[in-house]
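Its record is set out here:
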Amino acid sequence: MKSFIFLLVMFITLPLFAQEVKVSARTGDADIDMHLDEVNKYGKAEFEFFKNDVALKFGVKAGEINDLYYKEKIEPGDIFYAYTLSSIAGKPVRGIIDLHKNKKGWGEIAKQLGIKPGSREFHMLKGKSLSGIGKVKSKHIDSRKGGIQKGTPQKKR
């Protein structure tokens, strides 16, 4: 009977000690992977600022980013990288997201879009991926508070 109670208590309490599984973005480039992990952290901690940053950087509607994150459950780093690939390859982001949802890795998707390691496009991809979002905590105008809010990038002039 004691062993039954012990097992029952263990069965009930074990899930309380379970840890969140961390899924890392993998592109095949260690620098980009590390940056996308940072983007994931930033995007989850400050989604509204992340959403506005991506919308501003890529000229897309914030509602699209909302849908990708909330409805389709896509990680912030993946959203950012899909828009980065889209801007360099000149392909619609929807097709890139669909390829990624079909379990294709970012490196494979980039190759499929004609972005080969070492090419001019690859260097553009790496440069765009490592610049801006989540990398630098700067200032952002928050109209609700009537001033500058720390924590997000401001548009360069």
About this structure: The radius of gyration is 19 Å.
